[in-house]
Amino acid sequence: MDLHAAEKPHLNGKECGTSGWDAGNCPVRDVIDRIAGKWSTLLLEALARQPYRFGELRRLVPDISQRMLTQTLRDLQRDGYIDRQVFPTKPPSVEYRMTALGHSLFEPLSKVLQWAGDKHPAVKAARQKFDEGELS
Amino acid sequence: MDLHAAEKPHLNGKECGTSGWDAGNCPVRDVIDRIAGKWSTLLLEALARQPYRFGELRRLVPDISQRMLTQTLRDLQRDGYIDRQVFPTKPPSVEYRMTALGHSLFEPLSKVLQWAGDKHPAVKAARQKFDEGELS
DNA sequence: TAGCGCTAGTCTCTTTTTGAGACCAATATT
DNA sequence: AATATTGGTCTCAAAAAGAGACTAGCGCTA
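Structure tokens for the assembled complex are given below, as produced in the milestone run.
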């Protein structure tokens, strides 16, 4: 129940504001909120490369709990980014595979990941500067 | 498989795994975890357009609490994406403005946001299909 | 044949994060 | 004189996430 009791999206009674830009942006938020999780991009990056099974993903991302792995994979599946295929082998195995929609998302997303890798030194420097100035 | 290792935020001193895991080689996660929050992209999108003051942002994103607005702005500032400038007016006002680093991040990021807007129908359809199949 | 591990998860408990709302001091408005 | 606005902080409750035990059927092996 815990997992399935997944929250219905944002309160819908209220529009996204009345002034200009936000009105058309609720769909964006609806989509972004799901891929903005702590683990989503990590799993998407893995599955963009190749399909993986549950246990493989768990080993690939050692600090994710089984609970969050299950939940995140299900969320990604629900939004259509990945497919879940069960093989009725002796111990049943499950394979997760990125869909076409997932790949089309990952194309722009990978640019952000690349930016993060490239600019990491600048970010680290900014952090250090900020923390020093705060110490006063 | 050099996925980003588990270097956690500054509050968490836990080292990355013990076996074959390069702690220094997970810069992507270090950066992404910060902009992957629920409110970060929303604020970045606003500030990419123009500078805003605290209260303006609060009105622009009506469902953010003051507490999270303060905290998210400070995180974004710490990572060097935005600047905070205090004007000693009668009631002191504070302006937040995107930095060059922030703009350079927003360039690839905006592509993802655009994708989200474009593909929202597909995602919604996937969700509906998933939820129907689960109902059985 | 009793024990172990593997599969993909779920269940419960605890800790962390987030949300809601009161409070702040100085000034401006009504 | 009472009230609202400025940009926050503080406390407390609710939600989300982390940790770890538990499940079932099968294969291996000691």
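Chain B touches chain A through 57 residues (CB under 8 Å). Chain B has one domain: 27-134. Further analysis is deferred to the final report.
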